[in-house]
Amino acid sequence: MLVSPTAMAFGAAVTLPQSMRRISSTSKHASSPTRIALQRAGCVLALRAVYAAPRRKSGTSRSFPVTEEDRQRCSTDVQLDFERQGFLKVPAILKEEEMATLSRAIEELQSSEKCALSALQHQVRVQFGAVAASQCTTLAACRKKLAALEKRGEVSFLQYFNLHRLSEELRRIAMSPRFSFWATRLLGVPRVRLYQDALFVKRPGDGATDWHSDLGLAPFDTNSFLTFWLPLTAVPPRGGSSLVYAIGSHRDFALPFHGDLDEDLTGRYKLWRTGSILPGDASIHHGWTLHSAAAAPSSGPLRVAWTLGFVADGARLHGARGGPAEDAVSYEPWIGDCGRGAVVDHPMVPLLPLVDD
Ligand SMILES: O=C(O)CCC(=O)C(=O)O
């Protein structure tokens, strides 16, 4: 069964996980005075046990093909729902064996010291800037630098960026016909490119994920962008930290046109809380959809999710912009090869296979 936003969206009012102030779409992290000051001026965790979370049964395919079920589920009505609401929950988009393959590939990388260090360094960069990050060259140094912020709940998660660049298996999964199919259908475009993947590890006691939209952090001059949020650990119905969406916010042109960056938007949108979500399921959102997630209770389990960001083939680079470069690691290695305003056609933003109708 596929849960469409219209089926569930307006059922119950939900409480805001945190204020909708500072909704500037430029950062995902819980507010830290240090980081805000910086903005104004201009794999530690072993997850083996965590991945033992319940997984859905059925199917044995390891090639992530487009199935007849995908074609039936991604109906015109579902595409319209996504267009209107800006998000969609798809239970069991991955079969049990596919999920096991994905978890294994991620676990292998994520437990490596190299990945752990770069996730911590990224966090230091987000919180304190690039110079501080370049000075934290060991796990211990990074942890020390972040300790006070973590204590105050001002770190929202650790982010392991672009694991597909390190693993053939993950690249194959990220660029599989299954994701190509859903992404192109939901965006209504012929082809998409893989922009980035990121592993979000929210640890017990980590702060809320601040309201933001993903396109605000990406260098593309397009509206055709979406993100798959794929949990690797089960999120319980209550007290979990799955995504909360501001319904229809991706179509709210008036907000950037008339709005103030620091405006309090509480009450402007109805919200939809994803609630319980299992490994194998996907929560998909449009690039402009505002979303957030609650803080992780300090007594709770790790919450781990892998995300994939896809952009329409043919998108151009937009001009330079200010604001924090929170996702800069995704475009720094290739953006210099493309001119401002150029159509992005770069091997580091690879084109997914064409899927026929
Ligand atoms: O997992 C989270 O808390 C944040 C994820 C997110 O911002 C995204 O998928 O775009």
From TrEMBL:
Protein name per UniProt: Phytanoyl-CoA dioxygenase
SUPFAM superfamilies in alphabetical order: Clavaminate synthase-like
Domain of life: Eukaryota
Cofactor(s) required, per the database record: Fe cation
